[in-house]
Write a structure and sequence with these properties.
Number of strands of chain A: 13
Order of helices and strands of chain A: EEEHEEEEHEHEHEEHEHEH
Radius of gyration of chain A: 20 Å
Largest sheet of chain A: 7 strands, parallel
Shape of chain A: elongated
Oligomer: homodimer
Distance between the termini of chain A: 21 Å
Largest interface: A-B, 30 and 30 residues
Chain lengths: 245, 245
Amino acid sequence: MPRFFMVGSNIAGGTLLITGADAEHAKVLRLKIGDRIIVCDGDKTDHHCTITKISHGEVEAEVVESVPCPAEPSVRCTILAGLPKQGERSDYIVQKCTESGASEIVFFLSQRCVAKPDAKGLEKKVQRWQRIAEEAAKQSGRGIIPAVSAVGSFAEALDIANKTELPLFMYETGDRVELKDAIAEAGSIRTAAILTGPEGGFEPFEAELARKIGFRICAMGPRILRCETAPLTALTALMFATGNL
Amino acid sequence: MPRFFMVGSNIAGGTLLITGADAEHAKVLRLKIGDRIIVCDGDKTDHHCTITKISHGEVEAEVVESVPCPAEPSVRCTILAGLPKQGERSDYIVQKCTESGASEIVFFLSQRCVAKPDAKGLEKKVQRWQRIAEEAAKQSGRGIIPAVSAVGSFAEALDIANKTELPLFMYETGDRVELKDAIAEAGSIRTAAILTGPEGGFEPFEAELARKIGFRICAMGPRILRCETAPLTALTALMFATGNL
């Protein structure tokens, strides 16, 4: 069923007004009076609606039923990824992690990041990523649009992750726990974070820092994963292990 | 460590000769006498070598130690994917599933496939996919290069999958078992197959056919996955659940 997000929202008295780009999209989809659509409030509630009126640039719909969006996982997981060199890799991380249930996606700059965009460059990228996240959220039936952001420093990323119940640091060498065990030992959790590096991985001191402030330093099996694959693999494993897949 | 595949192979008496494109690649990597490399036989054995001679177009190396490649999973999983409309999606399936431990990748044409390449078109695609698989196998440290192929019919794909111990059919609607339960109920297995559809999914009769010949019809959670994401998600879940991640 066609899905729209109306964050903030024009929902009042059981009637809802779709305008702007969404109304354009409704036109492209050739929606007619009587058609059913889902309008999600971006806060985990789906309004199942019937279209009642279509006018120039606006679509009016009546709410038939409002239900919790079934697609939202029980664990709120934040993905923190070292900014990849290639733009298509960051796009990929945003799209696939949205599809797979991430609640928030944060890019950061660490020691081995090759791309070092300035503030303006980053701002443009964030806008692009946010559009990709919205598209993926619609397509996969999410109840929120994951917020995408970029923080300048590795330290800031550590801080964000460390505020969750299960901060996981994906590392390819040294003293590590299996991801499976880290998740199992955490028991029933409501928040988690997955931190992965850029193409060249992390410096040893970065892993040590994370370990000292309470991250679980995790291995993800014997195969070397690309920087754009690692967050998705870890997220999928987390969703699977917590009954969200 | 730089990794090469020598299938069939020039290994004799502990000395090994790298020629052709691999020798070119060694040049690009600026390998020198004394450098360590891994040469995999493509059959799960890694030869750790030291380079002993570099001449015009050839690199000679001495085998120091031959060990089983640690990256090969205990479950041999065949990915069978309905051919996506967009070429980049099939490329993606090959690359990511190779990284994630697939043993074989087979594309098939089912009812809702939009792309219907002829035999010659398919042959060219298979060559391209095979190169992508080789690249991904090197990068991720695999002990084999997954064979990539294309079969014309859905029936043929069913037949291939059904020869494994755990044929899984990913379906987005109707009477299904959770992927998690299907894997758990299978117990200790050595082979499995994951069958996923093209962009438009499967026709109900296709799912029924699969069910009747013994497939487990599986759900993968409440989020709708793109056709290029679904095989990777299912494979990652299988690897995770069987201790291969």
